[in-house]
Amino acid sequence: MAKIAIAPGSVVDTQGTGVVTASNLTVKSGGQSILVAGDIVSPHGTHTGTITLTAATCSTTVKIGGKGIALATTKATCGGPAPSPPQTMLTLSPTVNAT
Hints:
By secondary structure, the protein is an all-beta fold. 0% of the residues lie in helices and 36% in strands. The chain has no helices and eleven strands.
């Protein structure tokens, strides 16, 4: 099982750090919103335009509002046809895991 990603979240890659804005404001872990597929990542470096957490890398079994929750292994789109590795979710729940 992987740790789940919670707000405040960040995506870190070779272009810098993009802040993740949580769309889920009701389901929380440790008082912090759980991040989900489609949450918006702020532009960073040359990664501009609409950047989101990639649904294919979020949980397929645990969902909030029909969207998979973000895991430690979740990637962001970063404006290209595929994620630009390496990317890491910085804020993880210390107590909750999911698949």
